Amino acid sequence: MAFLTSRDNAFIKTVIALQTRKGRKKHQQFLAEGPHLLEEALKSSYEVKAVLTKGELKREGRIWEQIEAQRIPVYTVAPKLFNELTETENPQALLGVVAQPPEPSGFPPVEQDFLGLVLVQIQDPGNLGTILRTAWAAGFQHIFITPGTVDPYGGKVVRASQGGIFNLRIYPASLPELLSWAKEERIKLWAADPCGRLLYFQADYTGPTLFLFGNEAHGFALTGSLDQSTVKRVRIPLPGGADSLNVAISAGILLYEALRQRFPQEIPAGKLSDKGVE
C-alpha cells in the first residue's frame, strides 16, 4: 500500500495538474472529490484510474467493495498534502482520478423522443454543473457544448453536477455544425430568449427537440444572430419585473416542460427507463 508525502512524487504532480484545464487536457483525466462523486463514477461507464485517501481510512462499505472489485489502485496521502490536491475549503477524505471518455465521433442517432441541450459559451462552472445535474435528473442525456464554454470536467462543474457528469453524453461541436445537423435531422430548435414572442409553455416539445442556451451576460450576441427560420425563440414570463433568469434555472424550466408534455400522466420515481429518456 503506497503512502505518499511529497509534492515531488510523479503521481502527485499529475493529480495537481488535473486542477487546471491544460493538465486535464494533457492527461485526459479529471478529479472526482468526495465519496458521493466517487461512487457515481464507480457506478458509471467512466474508468476510475486511482483513489486517494486522506491518511488512513477504514476500508469498509459498498464503495470500498466497488473499488476492490474494479481493482483500482489506492494511495494513502499525508493529510496536509491531500488538502493541496483538492479544491474545496474543507475537503472530504476521498479523491478519485477519473479518465475522460473519448470524444464522440459525429452526432447521436435521432429518435422521435430525442431531446438535447446546446450550451453556447456558458462561462460559469456552477451554472454548467447545475444544468448537467438537472438534465440527469430529468432523464435527458445529450449535451452539446460549443467552443468558449467552460470545461465540463473542471472541479467546480463536476461538483455542481452532483454526479450528472457521469450519466450524460457530452458532444463538443461548433454552433454552425450543430445547426446544420439539426436541420438535416429535422430537429426542432428552441432558443431561450427573454425577447421571444412565444411563451415557453405554448411551444410543442414532443418531437425531436434541441434547446439552445446562450452566454450568461450576452445571450447569443457573441455568436451573431440566429436564423429565425431555423431557430424559434421562447421566453419565460417574468411578471415580477426581473430582467432575466439564471441560465441554469431557465434550462430546468424548459426541460421539465418537455418532460411534462412527453409524459402527461404521473411518472413514478425512477421509472422512465434504465438509461433515461433519449
Shape: elongated
The gyration radius over C-alpha positions equals: 20 Å
Q: What's the main sheet like? A: 7 strands, parallel
State the CATH architecture of the largest domain: 3-Layer(aba) Sandwich
Average pLDDT for all residues: 90
Percent of residues in helices comes to: 25-40%
Unreliable stretches (pLDDT < 50, length at least 5) are 273-278
Indicate how many domains the architecture comprises: 2
Discrete helix count: 9
Oligomer: single chain
In short:
This protein is α/β, with parallel strands linked by helices and 278 residues long. Helix content is 31%, strand content 20%. The chain is elongated.
List keywords for this structure.
single chain; 278 residues; alpha/beta; 60s Ribosomal Protein L30, Chain: A; Alpha/beta knot; five-stranded mixed sheet; 12 strands; disordered C terminus
Task: Describe the protein's topology.
Layout: E1 2-4, H1 10-17, H2 21-27, E2 29-33, H3 35-43, E3 48-54, H4 62-69, E4 74-77, H5 79-85, E5 94-99, E6 115-119, H6 125-138, E7 142-145, H7 155-161, E8 169-172, H8 175-184, E9 188-192, E10 198-199, E11 209-213, E12 231-235, H9 247-262
Parallel strand pairs: 1-4, 3-4, 6-7, 6-11, 7-8, 9-11, 9-12, 10-12
Antiparallel strand pairs: 2-5, 3-5
Helix pairs in contact: 6-7, 6-9
